[in-house]
Design a protein that fits this description.
mainly alpha, Chorismate Mutase Domain, subunit A
């Protein structure tokens, strides 16, 4: 493969990552709405810890950098927490 072809492959993967993140936040928002309807706490700290641990472990098992993995999962889960606590930063 030449450089432009490799760059195009990376662009396609980036598009997939964006799509997956969008789907993840759709599901997360649905969970938040269901929790609100049923009077549950919006944030389950044990679940957050479990998600973060699993994510980093899976990244490391896949050969990814542990520090990058931790940073990435923190960004994702902190956004979920922000939205659940009413501080949504998503576009209207």
């Amino acid at each position: 493969m030449d450089i432009p072809a490799l760059q195009q492959a990376i662009d396609s993967i980036d598009d997939e990552l964006i799509s997956l993140l969008q789907r993840r936040f759709v599901f997360s928002r649905q969970i938040g709405a269901l929790k609100k309807q049923t009077g549950q706490l919006s944030i389950d700290e044990q679940r957050v810890i479990s998600q973060r641990t699993r994510f980093v472990r899976r990244c490391i098992e896949s050969g990814l950098d542990p520090t990058m993995s931790q940073q990435l999962v923190l960004v994702i889960t902190e956004q979920v927490i922000t939205e659940r606590l009413g501080g949504s930063t998503r576009p209207t």
